[in-house]
Amino acid sequence: MKFSCQRQSLCEAISSVSKAVSQKSTITALEGIKIKLMPNKLELTGYDLEIGIRTTIPVVSEDSGEWVVNSRLFSEFSRRMAGENILFEIDENLQMNISSSNTQCSISAMSAEEYPELPVVDLGKNIEIRQDLLKSMINQTSYAASTSENKPVLTGELFEIENGIFRVVAIDGFRLAIRTENTDCQDYYHFVVPKKALSEVSGLIKDDSGDKTCFIYTNNKHIIFDINGFLVISRLLEGEFHNYKNSIPDGYKTEIIANKRDFLNCMERCSLLLNDKNRAPVRCTFENGEVKISCKTAIGKINDSFKADISGEAVTIGFNNRYALEALRAADGDKIKIQLNGCMKVIKIVPLESESYIFLLMPIQLK
Predict the structure, then answer these.
(1) What is the pLDDT of residues 223-274, one digit of tens each?
(2) Residue 299 has what DSSP assignment?
(3) Alpha-carbon span 212 to 264, nearest angstrom
(4) Which of 137, 146, 244, 260 is in the most buried spot, having the most CB atoms within 10 Å?
(5) How far apart are CA 210 and CA 223, in angstroms?
């Protein structure tokens, strides 16, 4: 068997599918990339039994066959070959010979017989969403997914479509992030996608994706994201997701309209005093058109303030600095609204003009 292809397109494909290759598995084949050669195309697959990534690139070949090759060696040799085109020849002993320009090398491959098949999902019915919107929805929520395995379903994100509204929700028990978009889909969907899979999906969407579409296919066990010729296949998480709608307050006693950059700068200065050994809540007072922020640890202390539009009762509240920073960095626009119902009720942060993005943060009791 032999084929030739462009080095750049091959390297890009290897780089993407390698992210789903298992680092250590009882099935040795899963520690490599599965290669399937067909006339004039090459299919590459990485799979760790939880997430799979598959793509196809054009090649010059009349042959067919399957084998598995070490992902690191395949990537490094392909990337470091001289010349723009690479020729591969695979002999009957599964020795893969690689040549380009004046360089020749070879690496050992293995049979693809032990490589598990990717899950099958019906591609007849799909959800369509613009790639840039999906990337935004993931990036504005994923940091709030739980890292604890005590409740595995919360380590993923809820995808919910209901009455033409598409929501992505993440919660870890201390904070809740919700991103909302309108959709033409009128069907009802409710499933939870692992955070790792969504991270790979976001990474595959280029910043200049424009109005390109992502197609999503799902059943009750697996999901497929079809993005620019890449398929990301993941299992869905089982379990009952938190009833997030009951957590959203429907009113407030204090509302603050603040410049996001002013708030961010204060939080970033506070973070200089905080680390794993030196933890403390940030104390924040909203009153008389001013936001006063202070923090004190064994490293030092800080007092800071900035102007804001404040209506309603004065409030002093404590919260986790990192959680607030992540929410502020994710929020769109130059200004944000902060809504409060007292010092021990949840903090709500939304954009100035809409509630397409909602972030809820549990307060910390101050001494």
Answers:
(1) 999 998 999 999 999 999 999 999 999 999 999 999 999 999 999 999 999 9
(2) S
(3) 32
(4) 137
(5) 24
Cβ contact 41:59 at 8 Å: yes
Confidence at 26, pLDDT banded by 50, 70, 90:
confident
For residue 230, give the H/E element and its range: strand 230-235
Q: How far apart are the first and last CA of the chain?
A: 72
**Lowest mean pLDDT segment, chosen from 93-97, 101-105, 286-290:** 101-105
CA pair distance 300, 283, nearest whole angstrom: 15
Query: Quick one: how far is CA 3 from the chain centroid?
Result: 35
List, as one string, the DSSP characters of 71-124. Answer: HHHHHHHHHH-SSSEEEEEE-TT-EEEEEETTEEEEEEEE-STTSPPPPP---S
- From residue 32, give the alpha-carbon distance in Å to each of 51, 68, 108, 137, 316: 14, 6, 11, 32, 55
Strand partners, 191: 159
Residue 144 is encoded by which pair of tokens?
A: 């709030």
Bridging pattern class, strands 175-182 and 357-361 = antiparallel
Cβ atoms of 258 and 306 closer than 8 Å: yes
